[in-house]
Amino acid sequence: MTTTDSRFKVILVNAGPHKSGCTDRALREVAGALEENGVGADVFWVGTKPLASCVACKRCTVTGRCVFDDRVNEFTSVACDYDGIVLGSPVHFGAATGAATAFFDRAFYSLRQRVGDDAFRMKVGAAVASCRRAGNTATIDQLNRYFQLLQMPIATSRYWNIVHGATAEEVEQDVEGLQAMRFLGGNMAFLIKAIRAAQDAGIELPAQEPTTYTNFIH
Ligand SMILES: Cc1cc2nc3c(=O)[nH]c(=O)nc-3n(C[C@H](O)[C@H](O)[C@H](O)COP(=O)(O)O)c2cc1C
Fold first, then answer.
1. Scanning 64, 70, 99, 166, which has its CA 20 to 30 A from the CA of 176?
2. Which atom of ligand 1 sits closest to the CA of residue 165?
């Protein structure tokens, strides 16, 4: 067991309805591997209270916070303290949960307003899905999109970042799925440390241009 290096930590978000269900079980395996590799890990559950989706009011462009003052603002007030973020969701009808979409849309949009376009630049992202049978890769693709818009490198595993089951006990039997979670945690820890080492060695991030919005009207 390596000692957790307090310089690095990852937040793992469970956007499923079960606090200790399948998604949580998968995230805990990733968290264990992160910790084994010297990176701290905190699991954040979105809960079961109704979550509004983004209403495009743009109030966050003024306040830096979502107009709906719920778990989303709790998350965004700590998210920037982390070096990496894992988005976890069960599959509901072949996609991430409604809560995941509502939560992550509002969180990432308002975070960008609060901290700027570079809010998560070079912080490492990873997506995890749990399902009973199918719809898992579509869910992973969906969750990865949040990282792709924020200049975040995506950590991967040796196979799909997916576990199968209807309960945490069933996930326990998905030995290959849990193994994929451990590979993911190890790879994520390495990427986080490698990015920090590059910065410490004086390798600078490329210069940024201000965004030009065209909205396809030109
Ligand atoms: C509304 C709903 C829709 C679901 N749709 C799917 C589905 O499309 N494909 C699938 O394999 N499992 C589906 N499931 C099962 C869950 O994805 C699966 O049991 C998951 O591992 C539960 O994770 P959790 O314990 O973190 O909630 C669905 C479950 C619910 C409640």
1. 99
2. 21
Q: Do 15 and 51 meet the contact criterion of CB atoms below 8 Å apart?
A: no
pLDDT in tens, 12-34: 999 999 999 999 999 999 999 99
d(CA 103, CA 203) in angstroms, rounded, equals 34
Long-range contacts of residues 136-140, Cβ cutoff 8 Å, at least 24 apart: 136/91, 136/160, 136/162, 137/162, 138/91, 138/94, 138/95, 139/89, 139/91, 139/94, 139/95, 139/96
Strand runs labelled E in 46-137: 84-92, 95-96, 124-131
Instruction: Classify the C-alpha dihedral 129-184-83-116 as positive or negative.
Output: negative
- Read off the pLDDT band of 212 (50, 70, 90): confident
pLDDT digits (tens, 9 = 90+) for 61-106: 999 999 999 999 999 999 999 999 999 999 999 999 999 999 999 9
How many whole angstroms separate alpha carbon 10 and alpha carbon 42? 6
Answer yes or no: is the C-beta of 139 below 6 A from any ligand 1 atom. no
Query: Nearest-5° angle of CA 113, CA 92, CA 22?
Result: 95
In ligand 1, the atom with minimum distance to the C-alpha of 95 is 8
pTM for the predicted model, two decimal places? 0.96
Closest-CA residue, ligand 1 atom 29, reads 92
